[in-house]
Specification:
With 298 residues, the protein is mostly helical. It has 14 helices and no strands. α1 crosses α12.
């Protein structure tokens, strides 16, 4: 990876790591749905302006349904699930659940694309679930019903990401990636409107400057700018290298939350995250690639 793209990769990891902390700030005040709507609309607007500057053709009539499905499962539902889980679990837990997405992408590849079920994929799935169990069992947060439900919501969000990635390969592989990103954000915003608008009166009374700033950063930077960087990395370095940002996010999320929210980082947190990231490396095929690279240099 070039030096400039390596910098972009670490910047993306730092940006996405803040998103979980920011949801922990905004969601308890605005509610999960309104927090998600604000993030999606601001992110969609930023992406739209960027796409228009690149003269991207969205072909709305032909692609609207595709944008909607991707928008629901890659944005609206998982963002809302994470915003809800932010009410009950630490940022490190959410970021670790997010890291399960490549594992579930592999599962949907088997179910929808008839990809081969391998021992490596089975091991990745089992190891990922074991990592989650370790994180929840020995992490810094007491295990309560709400904590368990928050973890399950985060895992459900990762399942949505896995389906969305597979669906995108099936239905949107010939579309400009920036058009898919922008169109899916805007349709997700429309889908969220009826669920989020009832929370506006409460939010108007309860919102503070800090909360509104958190939503603005979530939308403009953690969604709009982050997607632009991510798709640039995909275009210039390939998806297999771009997706390695997954390994940076749990660490950066834990650091940001430790610095600004005083969330503890315990040995249990580190061990649980490490196990999940090993599972993710297996699911992405990175272990075999690293082994081959080491052997080629030997």
């Amino acid at each position: 990876m070039s030096t400039s793209n390596l910098i972009r990769l670490f910047l993306l990891g730092a940006i996405w790591g803040t998103s979980f902390m920011l949801m922990r700030i905004a969601a308890p005040v605005l509610g999960p749905m309104l927090t998600t709507l604000g993030r999606v609309l601001l992110g969609g607007a930023a992406l739209y302006l960027f796409a228009r500057s690149r003269d991207i053709d969205f072909a709305w009539r032909r692609n609207a349904f595709t944008y909607l499905i991707i928008g629901l499962f890659n944005t609206a539902i998982p963002f809302a699930l994470f915003a809800w889980s932010a009410l009950y679990i630490p940022s490190s837990y959410m970021a670790t659940m997010n890291s399960l997405a490549p594992i579930f992408t592999g599962v949907f590849g088997i179910l929808l694309l008839a990809e081969r079920l391998t021992a490596t994929r089975v091991a990745a799935c089992v190891l990922g679930l074991a990592g989650v169990a370790v994180l929840v069992g020995v992490g810094p947060t007491a295990v309560t019903l709400n904590v368990v439900l928050g973890v399950l919501a985060g895992m459900a969000a990762a399942v949505c990401y896995g389906f969305a990635a597979t669906y995108t390969r099936m239905k949107a592989s010939d579309l400009p990636s920036l058009a898919t990103a922008t169109g899916s954000q805007l349709t997700a915003g429309l889908a969220l409107l009826p669920f989020a608008l009832p929370g506006v009166p409460h939010a108007a009374a309860a919102a503070t400057g800090t909360v509104l700033l958190a939503v603005a950063v979530l939308g403009i930077f953690c969604t709009g700018l982050a997607y632009a960087i991510f798709f640039h990395l995909i275009a210039t370095e390939g998806s297999s290298k771009a997706i390695t940002v997954t390994f940076l996010v749990p660490a950066t999320a834990s650091i940001w939350a430790w610095l600004f929210l005083n969330e503890p980082v315990t040995p249990g947190t580190v061990v649980g995250i490490a196990i999940v990231l090993c599972a993710t490396a297996l699911a992405l095929g990175l272990v075999d690639k690293w082994k081959a690279a080491i052997l080629s240099k030997a």
